[in-house]
Amino acid sequence: MRPLFVWLVAAAALPPRPASAQAKALPPVDSNTVIVIARTKGADVSGRVVATDDTSLTLLTMKSKRVVLPSRTVESWRVRRGTLTARGFRDTDLHTSRLFFGPTARTLERHTGYAAAYDVVIWAGAYGVSDRVMVSGGFSMMEGWDSAANKVTGAKGPAWLDARVGIFRSSKAAVALGALLGTVTGPGGGSLGNAYAVATLGSNDHAVTLLGGYPFSRENLANEPTFMIGGETRISSRLKLMTEVWRVPSTTATHAVWGVRWFNDRLVVHVGALDRLDSHLRAFPVAPWLDVGFRW
Fold first, then answer.
1. Bigger pLDDT: 287 or 211?
2. What is the CATH number of the domain that holds 234?
3. Is pTM, for the whole model, over 0.85?
4. SS3 helix, strand, coil % of the chain, rounded to 5?
5. CB atoms closer than 10 angstroms to residue 262
């Protein structure tokens, strides 16, 4: 008995098997939840899990095709956010913490974030500290541009850092408070610290955002309030019409961005135009708008 006892003690003292050697947790059978499965080889597969056994699982894809996947080929899986409709699956827009550039009152979920590139020369990112607190920032690699004079100013930037705290959020409304620190260096440059309140009214598909802010610190910029109004409306499963209009300190014109958003659960692409509106609301095209973002 002593040798057997020694073997049992030795076996109990061994470290547990690494996660890679343990059986992977597979998604449960659920005919209403859409799952995205990353495979060890090949492209990801989306569908509803309709059957499982010890060695495989069966998916019903969005095209009503049954696919049997061996369990050993499942590397990871995640729930695809959205709803099933008579016309198929409708993705939830998970990129609603911003419009084109301006913030909404919706904050990122805890430990999620995104990285974005605006027209290649401006880079930005954001991170959800909690479900109600997020931070974001970015910088530009090009010289400043005076849209009124239609010339390069020689200033460098902008660069900015933003913090936002969600005060209230429901399926139809959200309110947040935030602070933005921005700077432009070089000739014609300046800096601004702006505290703001923002409210978003509407659903994930259709919403209006209103923002008002006032500077708490400034250099070479007028002591004037900041206003923004923006909107988004869904026109298809993965497309939205978007707009945002800004009135910022030390400018005589109002700037507007308009265009479309294409999205899925990871990527977002905005295509549009940046316009300058004069006092008679006549539009003067400034530049095309393109930004690409990746969410994790």
1. 211
2. 2.40.160.40
3. no
4. 5, 60, 35
5. 14
Same domain, 202 and 147: yes
CA 223 to each of CA 161, 163, 203, 217: distance values in angstroms, whole numbers, following the listed order: 20, 21, 35, 9
Q: What is the DSSP letter of 8?
A: H
Token pair recorded at residue 17: 């098997």
Contacts of 100 (CB under 8 A, 6+ apart): 230, 242, 244, 257, 259, 270, 272, 289, 291
What is residue 80's predicted lDDT score, i.e. its pLDDT?
87
- Domain range enclosing 274: 113-295
Give dist(CA 20, CA 44) in Å, integer: 20
Report d(CA 160, CA 162) in Å as an integer: 7
Q: Which of 32, 59, 80 is the last residue of a domain?
A: 80
> The domain that contains 61 carries what CATH number?
2.30.30.100
Mean of pLDDT over the chain: 84
| pLDDT for position 20 | 40
The answer to whether residue 90 sits within a structural domain is no
How many of the other CB atoms lie within 10 Å of CB of 64?
A: 7
Kindly state whether residues 141 and 276 are assigned to the same domain.
Answer: yes
Domain count, the chain: 2
Asked if the model's pLDDT at residue 4 lies above 50, the reply is no
Q: What is the mean pLDDT of residues 264-278?
A: 90
Same domain, 147 and 284: yes
Q: Using 50, 70 and 90 to split pLDDT, how confident is the model at 56?
A: very high
